[in-house]
Design brief:
alpha/beta, 4 strands, 47% helix, extended, binds pyridoxal-5'-phosphate
Length: 348
């Protein structure tokens, strides 16, 4: 290889200069997109035109135009008119940490290839568990996305069910995952990656609201067993990708408990929304309660506590409680008599 080229590619000074230019370009782009959004979210072009442009540019274009051309030919997530596709507008500071990460390129395969991130992952998981309100025994690790998170969780489910060391001996049982027909396709893919095959994934139909039809669970389960399969897991969506609908996690949880099968909840987009109940969607009264990832758990816990307090107030009140002093940090509207005047939407 040309030695000069190699030297230039690793030149700290070139990096500094190009880096400053790129940061300026991106800062201007953010300013224009966020604060003066007269431009379009996307300059859409048919695939063949894009290909034609890049085929010509990569062979004949000026390298100094590259970043600008990429910007002009990308969808702008920071634009106020950008409406989803689920991918969120990145907080600019994370772009800077991505740069750091890109230059360090620590592979994380072994400890010394990722000392700082390994420790940081542990801290992040601990803090997340604390924020959500999980017990001190909780643990976890970060994955690169929902697909890998689901596969990892379902591998754990299989480990529990398999009865032998699948890593060494392969699948010895005919295992099945039950899931809503509306669930994200990566659950289907996980089943196939685990070698369960097409028959290893049983899709439960949905009701008119696109939530898993819990009333057909028993019938479907019996058929699976009669066909000689064993259910290793059932997956609920919280929410599902296309419609944002929550499955009836309570009913699915009870079913899983009764049958002794692993209950996995796919809530790829809810980690952030769970937020330990601190997240808000405005207008809060109308929609927030139904968009909170831990709604189900909050409801259960709140209803139980409310019932206990309510019973005490209605009967002997030997705790001497003043209802005006009772408040729930994360509250939902509930029916218990003395608590009907609860004020919601105060934020956590
Ligand atoms: C509910 C749900 N599960 C899993 C995934 C897959 O996540 P990823 O694209 O990060 O692998 C998605 C992505 O849209 C999703 O909405």
């Amino acid at each position: 290889m040309d030695k000069q080229l190699l030297k230039a590619a690793y030149s700290p000074e070139d990096f500094r200069q190009n880096g400053h230019q790129l940061i300026d370009l991106l800062a201007d782009h953010l300013d224009k997109t966020i604060n003066k959004p007269s431009s379009k979210v996307i300059n859409w072009e048919i695939p063949s035109e894009q290909y034609k442009f890049w085929n010509n540019f990569l062979l004949n274009g000026k390298s100094s135009d590259l970043n600008n051309e990429i910007l002009n030919r990308s969808i702008h997530l920071h634009h106020p008119h950008y409406m989803g596709h689920q991918i969120s507008p990145v907080a600019p500071v994370t772009g800077l940490t991505s740069l750091l990460n890109a230059i360090l390129n620590n592979g994380m395969g072994i400890y010394e290839m990722g000392m700082a991130p390994t420790a940081m992952e542990r801290v992040v998981v601990e803090q997340l568990c604390k924020e959500i309100g999980y017990s001190k025994k909780s643990d976890g690790f970060l994955t690169s996305g929902g697909t890998l998170a689901n596969l990892t969780a379902l591998l754990s489910a299989r480990n529990k069910r398999a009865g032998n060391d699948v890593w060494e001996k392969g699948n010895s049982k005919k295992l099945v995952i039950m899931v809503s027909a509306e669930a994200h396709y990566c659950i289907d893919r996980a089943a196939r990656i685990m070698g369960l095959g097409k028959k290893g994934i049983v899709k439960i139909p949905v009701n008119e609201n696109f939530a898993l039809k819990t009333e057909v669970l028993e019938k479907t389960y019996i058929k699976i067993i009669n066909d000689g399969y064993e259910v290793m897991a059932i997956v609920g969506s919280a929410p599902s990708t296309a419609t944002g609908i929550y499955d009836d996690l309570d009913a699915i949880g009870d079913f899983a408990l009764e049958k002794g099968i692993w209950f996995h909840i796919d809530a790829a987009h809810e980690g952030g929304a769970a937020g330990g109940g601190f997240s808000q969607v405005v207008p809060m009264e109308d929609i927030n309660l139904h968009f909170t990832g831990d709604f189900n758990a909050v409801e259960k816990a709140n209803n139980l506590l409310a019932a206990l307090v309510d019973n005490n107030l209605q009967s002997t009140d030997n705790l001497n409680l003043d209802p005006r002093t009772i408040f729930w940090k994360r509250v939902i509207d509930m029916n218990d008599r003395a608590l009907r005047n609860i004020t919601i939407g105060l934020g956590g």
